[in-house]
Design goal:
Blueprint lengths: L3 E6 L6 H14 L4 E5 L13 H12 L5 E3 L2 H4 L6 H12 L5 E6 H5 L10 H4 L1 E5 L11 H9 E2 L13 E4 L8 H9 L10 H10 L11
Parallel strand pairs: 1-2, 1-4, 2-3, 4-5, 5-7, 6-7
Bound molecules: adenosine-5'-triphosphate.
EC number: 2.7.7.18
Pathway: Cofactor biosynthesis; NAD(+) biosynthesis; deamido-NAD(+) from nicotinate D-ribonucleotide: step 1/1
Catalytic activity: nicotinate beta-D-ribonucleotide + ATP + H(+) = deamido-NAD(+) + diphosphate
Length: 218
């Protein structure tokens, strides 16, 4: 039975931390591919980033030569805000009731999981893989910690045994790269080279994104 793995984010811009983790997920979960799902940027993030179309173009350039990475742009095509529960419900309808569906989140995102819309529906629709990122530990009394304690598995093979409902805490090695750091660096006229794919950097400069100077040095 195949297993569908989605990895969502703002990807503003996509960087080698995201891409390396996606490859690592293929290895660790034993799947042939992972789908990157760019989301609408919530209004509170301000307007310093790239547009949805620009983020999608950068993602396409980033994965162009990598057969194991896919892009699922359904959240960008949907009018208005993206809610993960809606995305998972749509995917569940497409995959049928039995295929394991896996959603990947960082510990930073998982820590505020109980503030996501219809969060308690999510484990009914998918398994959750929580990837350890530096930052504060989960509040032991909070709902995310409770969910983890109740549904935790440590063997990735367990995810194939049911369509949804388990939480796997994955200790994958992470590159210390953030999109915020890249945006700041570009805005200051410093090079983000080797943090993002060269093709992504070339496009950022071509379009003058994040304050990049189109004529600047590579
Ligand atoms: P920002 O700095 O703008 O918040 P980000 O670099 O954290 O962006 P997002 O697009 O917000 O990236 O993150 C998408 C997903 O990727 C999240 O689940 C996040 O935990 C994860 N992620 C972010 N950076 C890394 C990294 N360096 N390695 C692995 N995963 C990462």
């Amino acid at each position: 039975m195949s297993m569908h793995v989605i990895y969502g984010g703002t990807f503003d811009p996509v960087h080698h931390g995201h891409l390396r983790l996606a490859i690592e997920l293929c290895d660790r979960l034993g799947v042939a591919n992972v789908s990157l799902v760019p989301c609408h940027i919530p209004p509170h993030r301000g307007d310093t980033g790239a547009s949805a179309g620009q983020r999608l173009t950068l993602l396409e350039l980033a994965i162009r030569d990598e057969a194991s990475l896919r892009i699922d742009d359904r959240e960008l095509r949907r009018a208005g805000a993206s809610y993960t529960a809606d995305t998972l419900r749509q995917l569940r309808a497409e995959l049928g009731p039995d295929e394991p569906l896996v959603m990947v989140v960082g510990t930073d995102a998982f820590a505020s999981f109980d503030r996501w819309r219809e969060w308690d529906m999510i484990p009914e629709l998918a398994h959750i893989v929580v990837v350890q990122r530096p930052g504060p530990a989960l509040d032991p009394d909070g709902q995310p910690a409770k969910l983890l304690a109740e549904r935790k598995v440590s063997d990735p093979a367990r995810l194939r045994e049911s369509p949804a409902g388990l939480v796997l805490a994955l200790d994958a090695p992470l590159l210390d790269i953030s999109a915020t750091g890249i945006r700041d660096r570009i805005a200051q006229g410093r090079s983000p080279r080797y943090l993002i794919p060269d093709g992504v950097w070339a496009e950022i400069r071509r379009q003058g994104l994040y304050g990049a100077c189109p004529d600047g040095n590579f």
